[in-house]
């Protein structure tokens, strides 16, 4: 498996690959370390690397694979640890020159749990001094940069973990959150950050054991990985007085059942006018709300009165700053970050009545929001009010604090940030999903439903393609390390674009609605194109819906019927823009669908064009070159879109060519191969714009191809 593929493979998939002996923990760890070597100098995400220890752990895990015993949840999975969290024998600086050479004797509780679950600790990720501030920089290690634009910030205070995840420096990382430090960096870097109910993840050591503001939490690139990591970190520990018992398996179960049909969902772009929000970000949240509506949820724009949040923050935050930092400020004022000192001084200036008023207002807000959420399942907001700002700025101009995230820290409610789109400048936008106290499974289920509808994990920062990967010298070469790109990885001077082979069997089924399961195979959010495999059980039905864009389906087995006809196994259906219909299957069916656009619920039939059934056996074969024949299924010359059935005789070859636009190929029978590997029966191949390759087949093949664009000889 290519190095970049390993670096961006979810932890849940790695676990399955380990069990099948497809790859080993050592291979994965070596690939991730190469990725760190290649990309970290540009973004500064990892600040202390436990290279030799990580390799030692990986070798031990690889040896253990052959012993046929149950594997722990994070067996052989590389993890980055935020530099606020103590790690035994591994430098932990808290981002401060006061602790620049500090090496703890004990692990934090969450690190104990990670190690016990089989995780491989890669090292420490950057943080602002003592986690203070929305921009990750400190005097020990400098600034962490946004991988989508190096001139901008990765956010704070878990910016090192977020940047590492976005660039493939491991599938999992830890973070922490007082006012948004898990969620803000996740939004800025296009990953997932989950602030959970205080006490769900026990904190030890900490100077404030009863603190209901600060939490530690999971970060990942996918919701499934976030749930997996949370299942390891959560649960009772008597060293943490706020901790409580919980069914940790519920988190993983939640993401396997991501349906939200019938849910009541509220959304607001600005918490009812509390926080001014950038227009592009507000628009992304509007689109996200529409996605939930297409999934069958009842969605409304609504918010209770959140106006007391800024005053509550001002009156309660100061106490935390005094408890944590007053003694340091007394001794080391000149060495500490100015903002940390100023906030501590503000806390010292508060009187007892101020502190009391803060808690009274907080209690009033709690009851108001609880009443609001009593009739809603989840609540949607933007995560960040603005896109990432200049890396030299301590915070966004005019926005020293984000009340969009701090509001839910005040309330102690579970809140996750997931990617929901990009700005015109190519910067990620985060969607915050909030639910009632201790309803983490509800949050995860909603997040997984959105992810299934609008996947994001395939989006990779341009920086990744611009950095070469250092690999060990081949055996017998007699040389040192060599630098060369792996498939799908580009150097600064030469672009190599390869096709992507998608192992359909390796993707988990997700329940869409009763009797209907899906596998999300591929998506390009920028063009609203996606490929989905759907399984309808006997008698299952999809409700009336309208196509916004078009859809091509290929029935692999069984048959499906809509308002205009029946598509049987081995044939194709075409649903044009505006088509309104239901779908049902009497005896069950498995269907590949390739969509451009989306679908939305409909209430009335008619008013749109009908779907079409294409019986492939009735179409003529046309020779296109020696050993290759095609059937033209559908074509739109104006947009250079078409679908064809291609038959390759044994030994046939397509000469080297370049794709101008995208192509998806589903292998119906046989196999063919290109420079990225072999495409076998039942699998999918994405050939992106700019992909250059040849195609060969040894024993023959039949494939369905959907093309956006054209090809040209090389």
Summarize the structure.
This protein is of the alpha+beta class and 714 residues long. Helix content is 26%, strand content 30%.
Give the arrangement of secondary structure elements.
Layout: H1 3-7, H2 11-19, H3 25-43, E1 46-49, H4 51-64, E2 78-82, H5 109-116, E3 120-125, E4 137-138, E5 142-143, E6 145-146, E7 149-153, H6 159-166, E8 172-177, H7 183-189, E9 192-195, E10 215-220, H8 223-233, H9 249-256, E11 264-267, H10 279-294, E12 298-301, H11 309-332, H12 338-348, H13 352-373, E13 378-382, H14 403-411, E14 415-422, E15 428-434, H15 440-453, H16 462-465, E16 470-471, E17 482-483, E18 500-502, E19 510-513, E20 516-524, E21 529-536, E22 541-562, E23 565-568, E24 572-575, E25 580-584, E26 589-601, E27 612-614, E28 622-625, E29 628-636, E30 641-648, E31 653-670, E32 672-674, E33 677-679, E34 684-687, E35 692-696, E36 701-713
Parallel strand pairs: 2-3, 2-8, 11-12, 11-13
Antiparallel strand pairs: 1-3, 4-5, 6-7, 8-10, 9-10, 9-14, 13-15, 14-15, 16-17, 18-34, 19-20, 20-21, 21-26, 22-23, 22-24, 22-25, 22-26, 24-27, 28-29, 29-30, 30-36, 31-34, 31-35, 31-36, 32-33
Helix pairs in contact: 3-4, 6-7, 8-9, 9-15, 11-12, 11-13, 11-14
